[in-house]
Design brief:
The complex is a heterodimer of chains A (120) and B (231).
Chain A: E1 3-8, H1 15-30, E2 34-39, H2 63-72, E3 76-80, H3 81-84, E4 98-101, H4 103-111, E5 115-118
Chain B: H1 30-45, H2 48-53, E1 55-65, E2 68-73, H3 75-86, E3 91-102, E4 106-117, E5 120-133, E6 136-144, E7 148-149, E8 157-163, H4 171-181, E9 187-192, H5 197-207, E10 211-217, E11 223-228
Parallel strand pairs in B: 1-6, 8-9
Antiparallel strand pairs in B: 1-2, 3-4, 4-5, 5-6, 5-7, 9-11, 10-11
Helix pairs in contact in B: 4-5
The chains are: A alpha/beta (120), B alpha+beta (231).
Chain lengths: 120, 231
């Protein structure tokens, strides 16, 4: 089983770029791989309570649904700590399953063999 | 976190006493010897109120410290000077203390303390000549070595309050620097309010080859991460 980190850098301001990493991560999780969506910059809002509501891109499953499917399939959602802090996002504002991590956590996973994936 | 003043140091909560030094004591008089002992005891505990209680109302202190000569008049000022040097945080260890008679009816007081505070360890030695009456210490003439940094020992529980430093504001770098300050086998305890540090610092510790001893949430809601330096 491989571990993959799907990088998501956009929030609801660009629904397509926000949704595609979750689409790909969900495929990986469905295929029995370890899938992590790493949200940075405005994508961190997607990991907050209600943050994925109404984020939809034509032709793609609504993001909120993908988010919950990813977790149900064993995937993870990580939010960059350097990006959440200036946006005032703390543990109390997180959606279920989201975790705030820093760069060292990501570096450790990659050093252990995780594959970073830029999908949008 | 309290810093180190240019001419002084930190405050202790507990002092490890040496085996009895009373046999070494040649008191210039009962008052002087008793007061010297009380001052040392108060200093070791960093009990500034108790230290002030050893001082007479007309006490005068002259102290030669690395930053220059300082003079203080009255118990409030003298006690405040010691408080400024030693502060109110950390732990002290008494490495040496000695009380002797000195010429001119004075009492010689020598002490060397090791202070562990917030990840920093300092040693200081002060030599003082005291003159006392039944009312208290009336004169202190003191020379100070300055608060000299030294590496922590493995038995030191070194604590680093990182505040809200985070991944984007230098926490990983400061964490690594603090680990490098302690000896192999020593424990570094980091207290942080940063949300990502709970995952990040253990990851960084592992990447650097150190061992994560514990991760816990404190009563104040902040995260405490204990790391043992392994290499």
């Amino acid at each position: 089983m491989a571990k993959m980190i799907f990088h998501c850098t956009h929030g609801r301001e660009d629904p397509e770029r926000a949704t595609l990493p979750f689409v790909a991560a969900n495929v990986a999780a469905t295929a029995g791989q370890e899938a992590i969506v790493l949200c940075t910059i405005d994508a961190v809002w997607l990991g907050t309570e209600g943050g994925a509501d109404g984020v939809e891109s034509k032709g793609l499953t609504p993001l909120k649904q993908l988010y919950h499917e990813l977790l149900a399939n064993g995937g993870s959602v990580w939010l960059c700590g350097a990006c959440t802090k200036p946006r005032g996002i703390d543990d109390s504002k997180l959606a279920k399953g989201a975790v705030i991590v820093g760069a060292a956590k990501v570096v450790e996973e990659i050093a252990r063999g995780a594959t970073p994936v830029a999908f949008a | 976190m309290q810093g180190w003043p240019a001419d002084g140091g930190a405050s202790g909560i507990a002092t490890r006493r040496l085996p009895s030094f009373v046999a070494q004591t040649m008191m210039a008089g009962p008052a002087a010897g008793r007061l010297a002992l009380e001052l040392l005891d108060a200093l070791g505990r960093l009990d500034h109120a108790a230290l002030r209680a050893t001082l007479a109302s007309d006490v005068r202190m002259r102290a030669l410290v690395p930053g220059g000569l300082v003079e203080d008049f009255g118990p409030a000022a003298v006690a405040a000077r010691f408080a400024g040097w030693f502060g109110a945080q950390g732990r002290t260890e008494t490495l040496e203390q000695r009380i002797d008679e000195a010429p001119g009816g004075r009492t010689s007081l020598v002490y060397r303390l090791r202070i562990v505070r917030g990840g920093d360890v300092r040693s200081v030695e002060q030599h003082a000549f005291l003159r006392a009456s039944e009312a208290g210490i009336v004169r202190i003439d003191l020379v100070c070595s300055g608060f000299v940094p030294e590496p922590p020992r493995s038995e030191d529980a070194v604590e680093f309050d990182a505040g809200d430093l985070g991944c984007g504001t230098g926490l990983p770098q400061e964490f690594r620097r603090r680990l490098a300050l302690i000896e192999r086998g020593a424990r570094l305890t980091v207290i942080t309010s940063d949300a990502s540090a709970r995952e990040d610092l253990p990851a960084l510790a592992r990447l650097l080859g150190h061992r994560v001893a514990a991760v816990a949430t404190r009563a104040d809601g902040r995260t405490e991460i204990q790391v043992i330096r392994e290499k």
